[in-house]
Specification:
Elements: H1 9-20, H2 34-39, H3 42-59, E1 65-68, E2 71-76, E3 81-86, E4 89-95
Antiparallel strand pairs: 1-2, 2-3, 3-4
Helix pairs in contact: 1-3
Length: 97
Amino acid sequence: MGIKFGREYRDIIDDFTNALQEIEGCHEFLEMSVEDWGELNEGERKECIKTLADDLFYGLGTEAQMNVGDCTVTHDPKRHVIRIDQGEALTRVIHLV
């Protein structure tokens, strides 16, 4: 199925990466322990999260919703956005067009 987008892919992934960096426990989705995550420097963490953003982007093309840490990441094809929600609160929106 895939996600349709009109913005530059790199820009979408940059926005998605910035949003995911704010999610506590995102390392769990990468199957990394707290200790392993803590040993990475800021640049290494950002690269891991960028890889996570890329993986989630493609995953959302087949599953409309995925959990990362304590957040839910949802592709909304009608509005052409990816939403990141923490509980009942909207955390971030990544625009695809």
